[in-house]
Amino acid sequence: MFFLLIYFITFIKIFSTMNNPDRQFAFSTTMKPYIFLFSILMTSCVWAQRDSTYIKPYEHKFSLRTYLAINFLSMEQQTGTEEYKKFMPNNPPNIGLGFSLNNTIVNVSYGQGFNFMRDKEKGKTKALDLQIHNYGKKFIFDVFIQRYRGFYAEDESGNVLALYPDLKIQQYGVFGQYVFNNKKFSYRAAFNQNEKQLKSAGSFLIGGGVYFSKIESDSSFVHEKRNSLHNFQFGVSGGYAYLWVINKRWFAGISTTVGVNIGSEKFNTFGKERIEVYPTLFPRVALGYNTENWSAGFSYVNNTIFSAFSDNDNANVSLFSGNFKISYIRRLDSFDFLKKKKNQRTQD
C-alpha cells in the first residue's frame, strides 16, 4: 500500500499547480489535431521461478508495437430509484507506436487523435488522459491522471439528449495488486503478449488503491444542492483472474476485482469529518491471437469507483475510467534487420 501512496502524492504534486481551468486543458488544446504522448516506463525484471510448462517467454529480444486505443472517463448519477443520468465524453480514437527490448519493458508511444471521427452532434470534449497499466510477474499497477471538460447524454436509441460543455471531471488514482499464482498465471501473456500462456490457469488477487476526484459545473451537475463534488478515498480489494488457452494460437482472459474504500470530501479533512464507505469494481478483458513472430490482441479495462454513495437514491455518483485497445506486435531478432541493411549498403 505504501508504493500506492507514493505514486498518488507524486502525481498530485505535479498537477496541483494547474488550478486555472484554461491551463488544465492547455495540453490538449495546443496540440490539436495532434496529441503527442512520450512516456518511458522501465520496470525491473523480478527474477521469480516460473513453471515452464505453463508460461513460455518469446525468444525474440526486440518487438515493435502499434495500436488503436480509446481512453475514457464517464460519470453516472442516480436521479431516482431506477433512473440514471450518464455523462459521456466525445473522444476520438488514437493510434500509437512502441517497442520492447530484452527483459526490460520500455514503452515509447506517439498518439494522434482522429478528430475527423468525432461526432459534432455530441459536442466537444477537451481532455488530458494519461493512463499506465503495468503488468509484472508478481505485481500489477495502474495509474490514472485524467482531466475532462465537455460531456453529452443520450437515450437508449443513441439519440443525443443534451450537451454539457461546462461539466469538468478530474480523477487521479493509483491501483495495485499482487498475483498469488504467478508461477503458472501470466498477466503479461494476456495484456502485453510479450510471453505466452501454454496451459489455462488462474490466480487470486489482492491489493488496493487510492483516488482523488473532483466534479464541477456551472449548472449541469447538481449534488446535494451544490454544483461540485470533491472526494478522496482509499481501500483494499480482492478478486480472481483467469487465462483460457483456447488452442495453440487463440486465448481469452478475464479478471474481476471488488473492493471497499473509505474516504471523505478532502484529503486534509480525512478523520475530521464523517468517513464514508464506497464499493469498487475493476474488470479486465483480453482476447488475442499469437504466432511465433507476431501477435494481435484486443483489451478492455474499466475501473469503477463511487465519488458519492449512500442509501439515498438521489446521492449516488459513480465514475468509470479505462480504455479499449486493439494492438499488433511484430517480434524481431534484436536489431538484425538493421545490420542486414547496413551490410547491403557496404557491399554496394
UniProtKB/TrEMBL annotation:
Pfam family, one: DUF4421
InterPro entries, alphabetized: DUF4421 (IPR025535)
Protein name in UniProt: DUF4421 domain-containing protein
Originating organism: Flavobacterium microcysteis
Taxonomy of the source species: Bacteria, Pseudomonadati, Bacteroidota, Flavobacteriia, Flavobacteriales
